[in-house]
Amino acid sequence: MPSLPDWRSHEQPEVAAARADSPPPSLDVEIRDIADTLIGSRQNVSPKRLVAPGPSSPEIQRLLGAAAAAPDHGLLMPWRFVIVPMDKRVLLAEAFALALTDRDSAATPDQIASAKEKAHRAPFLMLAIARLGDVLPDIPAMERLVSLGCAIQNILLSAHAMGYGAGLTSGQAMCSPRIRELFALATDEHAICCINVGTVVKQKRRRARFSPEDFTSTL
Fold this sequence. Notes:
Layout: H1 13-21, H2 25-41, E1 50-51, H3 57-68, E2 79-83, H4 89-103, H5 109-117, E3 124-131, H6 141-161, E4 165-169, H7 177-182, E5 189-200, H8 212-215
Antiparallel strand pairs: 1-5, 2-3, 3-5, 4-5
Helix pairs in contact: 3-6, 4-5
């Protein structure tokens, strides 16, 4: 029986070179399995269950580097992050408290104290900010918000890969003038959520996940 022709002999030189530089199939499978495990095992962790140690300076740079890999149509970088170190948490705590009393003048001392306490939980905290004003090229605001979501997910997965827990917190304070002033937000910027990272002090049972059939259809 004659041997089958080698289809690779008809490849363009640049294609053959790219194939030679690509990882072996076994490595592709390994990366896929790692990615599946990382994504599937990640859980949102409440800041109440996050304690020191948090990520080191080099690890923080890795988290931010992961954010930079998010899809960004038009290369607009339609988001930014502001790290709130421990010595500035008192400023965030005061902003949370004032945001509460601004919208509820009858807030009790316990409620105000609880609002302040939220700023002091996780050892690492930063605010995620979306830039949604007019831009060139004209990329829809919703698409830019998706880019921020991807950047945040990259951060969460990177933190999980490092062995840390991470979770998102938001609430009515994100829309408060107090937060806008503290973080010097421009008119086209919006505080979306806080990203909290630290060591998980108490594990919780993994929540059930939706099946692909629950959210997928065919046109």
